[in-house]
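Team,

Forwarding the record for the chain on the shared tracking sheet. I've put the sequence and predicted structure together so nobody has to dig through attachments.
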Amino acid sequence: MQFIKNPKSTKQGFIIFVKNPLSMKQVILNHTQIEQKINRLAFQIIENTFELDTIYIAGITGNGIILAEKLKAIIENNSTQKIVLFEIILDKDKPLSHSIEMTIDSKELEGKTVILIDDVLNSGKTMQYGLMKILEQPVHKIYTVVLVDRKHRRFPIKANFFGLRLTTTLHNHVEVSLEEGNYSAQLS
């Protein structure tokens, strides 16, 4: 809580003004912790796909594709698997306002294992629409990976692998920054 410096005096005493605690940001993961989570996620992917020669990694526009690129690099350094990285381009606020696109020919996904990645899983809406695009082809298997899982679902989505599972209120917001050299996840 933060207190305003100049409390007002009344006949009954002082009124202390407190800023809305929901507007304050709290760091839930720092740079080092996020690096550790990304490494762990990469090794979980390797452990669960070790029998495959090729895996397809789909990053959702924004931090999803950035996280996917980081995971791809770690997997390539620790595995002989071929990684095909592609982006799912969609409007996260209004997914049906524009067509959902992929930076790969969707026919390539037929019979393949796909890893769908985003930074935060909240209601499940963004993941659901990303999955719908992937499922236009008969894929073999799909895994979902997120850095932060908030557990507030409106859609039937779950994270197969997550860096941090966090119980929050509906009013909270998780913001992830994957700016090079300064990763952070904050709750406001």
